[in-house]
Amino acid sequence: MSDPGSYVVKAILIIPAVSAALLALLPDDRTTARLNVLGTLLTLLCAIGLFFVRPEPGLFLIVDDVNVVFIVLNTFVGFTTSVFSGSYIAHELEIGRLTPAYLRFYHAMYQTLMFAMNLALLANNVGLMWVAVELATLTTVLMVGIYRTHEALEAAWKYFILGSVGIALALFGTILVYLAASSVLGEGLNAMAWSVLVQEASAFDPALLNLAFVFLLLGYGTKVGLAPLHAWLPDAHAEGPTPISAVLSGLLLNVALFAVLRFKMVMAANAGALAPGPLMVTLGLASVVFASFMLYRRHDIKRMFAYSSIDHMGIITFAFGMGGALANFAGLLHMIFHSLTKSAIFFSVGHIAQVKGTQKMVDIRGLTVSHPVLGWGLVLGVIAIVGLPPMGLFMSEFLILTSTFARQPLLAIALGAGLLIALGALLLRLNGLAFGDAYGSDAPTQASFVPMFTHLGLVLAAGIYLPPTLVSWFQHVAGLLR
Amino acid sequence: MAVILDVLVQLGQLLLVLLLAPLLTGYVRKIKARLLRRQGPPLIQPYRDLLKLIRKEVVLADNASWVFRVAPYVIFATTWVAAALVPTFATGLMLSPAADLIAIVALLGSARFMLALAGLDVGTSFGGIGSSREMMIATLAEPAMLMIAFTVSLLAGSTQLSSVATFMQGPDVGLRVSLAMALVGLIMVAIAENARIPVDNPATHLELTMVHEAMILEYSGRHLAVIELAASLKLLLYMSLIGCVFVPWGVAVAGQDLTVYAGSVVVYGFKLAIGGFLLAVFETAIAKMRVFRVSDFLGAALMLGLLAALLLFVSRSV
Amino acid sequence: MDTLAIELLLWCIVALLATGAMAVVFARKAATTIVVYVITLIVSTIALATACWILVADATAAQQLRLPIGLPWLGAHFRLDPLAAAFLTVVNLGGAAASLYGLGYGRHEHAPGRVLPFYPAFLAGMTLVVLADDAFTFLFTWELMSLASWALVMAHHRQEGNARAGYIYLLMAGLGTLSLLLSFGLLAGTDGGYAFDAIRSSPLSPNLATAVLALALLGAGSKAGLVPLHVWLPLAHPAAPSHVSALMSGVMTKVAVYGFVRIVFDLLGPPIWWWGALVLIFGGITAVLGVLHALMEHDLKRLLAYHTVENIGIIFIGLGLALAFRASDMRGPAALAMTAALFHVFNHSVFKSLLFFGSGAVLTATGERDMERLGGLIHRMPYTAFAFLIGSAAISALPPFNGFVSEWLTFQAILLSPQLPQWGLKFLVPAVGGLLALSAALAAACFVKAFGITFLGRARTSVAEKAKETDICSLSAMFGFVLLCLVAGILPGYFINALSPVVQMLVSAQMPQQTALEWFTIVPVVESRSSYNGLVLFILITSAACLAAYVIHRRASHAIRRSAPWDCGFPDANPAAQYTAGSFAQPIRRVFGTVVFHAREEVDMPPPGDPRPARLHVHLQDRVWDGLYEPIAKVVGVTADGFNRVQFLSIRGYLTLVSGALVVLLVVLAVWQ
Amino acid sequence: MDRFALDVAHLFAGGLVLVSFMLLYQDRMFSLLNIFALHALVVSLSVAWQAHIQSAPHLYITAAIALIVKAIVIPVVLHRIIVQLGIHRDIDTVVSIGQTMLGGIALVALSILVMHPITSAAGTLVREDLAFALSVILLGLLMMVSRRNAVSQVIGFMSIENGLILAATGAKGMPLVVEISVAFSILVALIVIGIFLFRIRERFDSVDIHALDRFRGEQP
């Protein structure tokens, strides 16, 4: 392995692992936050390096058009979130919600999570991918429960149990895929290397593949949070520390969905296999409609945005289910824009909840009056998340809806209705949160606004102009996805 | 040469309507008095009233604004122009291209607009009563009028009154049910617009049912004179409108010599006399109705207009 | 192809957006207000000049431009053709006037930081919509426009009702955008040919075309305020600062009309005759319902907003006629109807902005929007009163002002309908004509009320007594429009000619050239049929009035004595004794209200000896809201409650869901194989 | 590979399904634990057999883990937990045992139905083997959703895991099997610890936080 790319890849995995170990050992809670930022920053730089040098796909790790963008996104959001988490955690220490011991644990887990997600994205071996996703799940479980309140522990427990079942299903699917492959490729690692699978998939036994896909879709779909497998998601978002909510919504859901996509490509490469489209469309549409209605009865601000994540995961799944160059392209765009926007929203929500000392929306009012920057940041984020221009999600939703309506008018109308209902709910809450007379404390925030506005700025810029290289990669991927 | 003649004829019409209007009013009053077995004022009484009024000083309410003082002249001017654009004794007048039937109706609308504002200007309760009821009546009268115009134009293929009159003189009109309906509708609208019985009583004061009089209650002196003159011009206008659309015989076509014009003037005088007589008879024969019955009255006119238009389609289709 | 004009316009956009950004940065500075409005004034004027030049000078050549932004493989297409130029004129005329007005009005703004950044963005959005030449850019800018105006509506978010107004507005805007988006989805087809050129070159099957029409009617109608999609309009327009209200009512609704015209007349293929009937019915109902609502209203700005609904109805009547005529290939009448609609678009933008400016002046002078608390302002604010009076006359379609001309043209088009072959239309159009006449008459009544109660009579409150005339900037903006009302009224020929290339492009025919005729008479079809000459009428009326006044003052008396009002001998000094807006509208409410509003009047008469005053309660209900929107809200609520139970299951319940999903999928698989 | 080997493997797989049904049938806690020990025993035997016939020695590790952890340690631990927490000795079911059995049969039928169309060249073993594994998994799920006690739910989960291991070992030469089984054992251990930490007596959902605080008090 002489080419520089492989070193870069190794670095992307090793840096988080090492910093996790360091953070677990270091006692001091002042430097740890900075070290955390440093680690993620280094990872990000290495990941950016992938744009320039790309290693040959190995049996275990791979870098291709599909995942390169997501790795960079992953490390980037990881970095910004660590910056945000610095100021967030400092406040948590002040008010004594977290003890230094738990803080050490928190940072170590954070890096472990980064490691796990990078591994899942980089993995070429489907078994390895499965292990990585399981690791990511376990770490987030531990972080969700970190506040040790009753609700937090129940949320973590629920997440743990449902996640384990999901993992089991996914594993069975993986085994089936291996069986299907091994009959063609012979036994051994080849039969688990995704890059090989995609090339040889046409020869696999379609029936076996179908069964495998059902299990994989449900297993990883549990992580994605598709209704009716979503139950863990809202509570995990609401009860855990906000940086974790941001990472969950912004990255982990993407990673799980990414796993599904890998297998969809395998399915797409096999002519005899059933089209995965209808399944994904059904699940996606169910999630969209369900989540949109759920938004109306939410009182906890973080739980509400968690449901909005379910909503958007549904949209993305729907898009990939519809397939076709336009819809797939739009789906990929939507994944990126959603993770940026949603994490930005959670950044602002985290600070808001800290300032107001509550997550109950009835006690948070008139933010644009009391905290203009936070308030308008939230407004901007919500405008972006409901898919209004000039933010990027408008573009992806435009593509999804128009391309669908020409083919399946009824589906498009259903999706549009779902979007409209979600828009109604979120704007209704936004009215209360951002406008009207200020309510609750208007103490100044020692917040770091940089991450939030960096994300929103990126979404805005991308909504207006997309770099051609990204476009060409995504068009290639969209082609692979069929 | 012809141009000068045109100008002369147009000026003649302008003066004629201005001079005849009070006479018509006086004539109608006289006939009504006679029908009631009264002596009645002499025919020229309206002229005397006007002359007396314009010589009197104006008593102006304290908070009357410029709208109140300008309104009479605007009302008078618009009504006069409108009256001068309706063919009375001759078609193809010089100014007739300036406005067709719809525009004439709209001109009267502007006059009404100003009058209603004037009624509100002083800020008395009577003025308000008058204006609001006047506008209510207008909201019903105008659609009816338009329906009638629609029928006429459907038949004559024009809303230009000269063309309509010429067409009506022509042979291919015949006797039509829809025309009769349109006529009845037009008469009802005319009664409402001119504040005649049964819609309103022109010869009254201090009645809670008054409309037109309530609006001009605050006026006095020359303002009152101008408004009264405008009112009688309006009556004349509607009579000559009915004349030129439904009994266009004897109306001189443009570009004839003066003798013909003279003859048609006489004919026009006869038409007015007959119209005035009928109006007086009708007014004495019928009682005034409640204000909120007016909507039914004018609604009937609207229905008639619509029915006339639709019947015309049917009769055309066969 | 020379793209000078369009480049210039795009630079104007850049300038506007930069101004908005600048306003964000310098939100705290006091001078920002002046700077922003001056810049917007200059930029809009430049854009206006460009548009007029295009319209007048070389209206035939369409300028196109493509920027590498927006959808990557598509780019952002812009196009400047006669239609765009015509609407650009409307947009930027309104923008320039509003900016000029804002120079004065903006000083009284207590939260400039919430207005200044969005105002230029709003102008930019409206201009971009008109320029857009592909589906994505169109919708993007369309929604940008909605968003900016939403922010402006929320500028005074603390006043009760405004937040709700903004919410409903943005929701309806979302609905509209969604339906437009779907219609473009149909037009573009599966392979996503979003550029308008591609759409033009790919005709649709009649059914799909009908679907597109319905969606366009829904989308553009919800923005324009077509009944029953008008509910947001009387809430949102008054909530914004007055110059923004003027823009929203006078201009943004026109952009919506532009969207409809662009889709239905330009992009969509040949129409079917009953499309015209559909649009006509909507237009007629909208016109009458809008003005009736306005009559029942005594909030000045809401009244004006409802009148916007009415005028949109009138415009759509014209468009419907044009569709009907075009469907049976009657080019001339189609051109007439289209001209009438477009001319009314221009006229309404002029006098509606004027009226909103006036209401804004009243608002700043008295802090009141409620007519029942005003009165007698003509003595304190004579210039504003005069401007408002002219605006009222114009919107009431009274000659010799511009409102009459466009409605007269519409009537002429209606009078041509008997030539239509379809019996349905033969019977429908006269009825719609009746509705149009009714709405015109009601509008006159409504503005007698608006002007009379607000400006005439005696002051009803102390604020009305102490009112001050507004500043010079606002007045100049108003009087500019007053002049325009008159000019467009007495010399309509020039405007009709200016519109002819647009009409030519839309219905491939145009009205006869007007200005050639002597005395500027306008003749829609032939002179023997109908003609109108505002100039002559104006001269005649003014000269007659002056003559009469001169003669009387000269020959007879010109003496004046001031005294208490006569009032049949019972003058009452109490201003409460005057007629109020409510009592003025009472006869019309008695006539129409019971049917349209379920209007009920309850007289609460105390028994003899009881000192409390007798009261009259009037109950009106908005049947559209109660009949359409309430049920939808109810359904959403019920469904949300139903779904919400899922939030509270036990883990075992969730596991059941998961395994249930698994089993179902397996069964599906088994069945499928 | 000779016929006999396949038959034995087949026998084990079928036996596992049978034991799963026996699990479903139990209504007493301790007997449930014993039956589960049997379940784990069968799995370890079948894994060992696979290791033998595939001559893949690393599978013996998996077999050992299964035997030690699941057949011995965990049942004992759970036994103690039940005694310590004073959990009800009998299992309260959502639906009656009989209906559960019927549902189980339906699930087995379904899994066979689903596996039927597989025409894989990977030996006749694979299809039936997979069918059995799938049925074990589905039965485990059924157990988790049809039992209210935490313990029986854990056991349901572990039977799912056994089914997975059966499938994984059945798949010839699959890499990472050992690692996966280890990972899974950790998972199960965590769940058991969680039950003990949270003092979860009856259902999965009711976490007893005070118990946790008491427990933390004992920590250094």
Describe this structure in words.
The complex is a heterotetramer of chains A (482), B (318), C (673) and D (220). Chain B is mainly α. Chain B has helices at residues 2-35, 45-55, 66-85, 101-121, 125-156, 161-169, 177-193, 212-215, 221-246, 258-285, 294-317, and one strand at residues 58-61. Chain B is globular, with a radius of gyration of 19 Å. The model of chain B has no long low-confidence stretch (mean pLDDT 89). With 673 residues, chain C is mainly alpha-helical. Among the domains of chain C are: 1-207 and 222-229 and 242-251, no CATH class; 579-619, no CATH class; 623-672, no CATH class. Chain C is built from 24 helices and five strands. The radius of gyration of chain C is 27 Å and the shape is globular. The termini of chain C are far apart. By secondary structure, chain D is mostly helical. The model of chain D is unreliable at 213-220 (pLDDT under 50). The C-D interface holds C 650-652, 655-656, 658-659, 662-663, 666-667, 669-670, 673 and D 94, 107, 110-111, 113-114, 116-117, 138, 141-142, 144-145, 148, 153, 203-205.
Query: Helical content of chain A, roughly?
Result: over 70%
What is the typical, i.e. mean, pLDDT of chain A?
A: 90
β-strand number of chain C? 5
The main sheet of chain A comes to:
none
Oligomer: heterotetramer
Largest interface: B-C, 86 and 87 residues
Terminal CA distance of chain A: 33 Å
Number of strands of chain A: 0
The low-pLDDT segments of chain C are none
N-to-C order of helices and strands of chain C: HHEEHHHHHHHHHHHHHHHHHHHEHEEHH
Helix content of chain C: 55-70%
Note poorly predicted spans of chain A: none
Please work out how many helical segments of chain C DSSP would assign: 24
Distance between the termini of chain C: 60 Å
User: Radius of gyration of chain C over alpha carbons?
Assistant: 27 Å
Shape annotation of chain C: globular
Topology pattern of chain A, helix = H, strand = E: HHHHHHHHHHHHHHHHHHH
Determine the structural class of chain C based on helices, strands and strand pairing.
Answer: mainly alpha
Largest sheet of chain C: 2 strands, antiparallel
What is the average of the pLDDT values of chain C?
Answer: 91
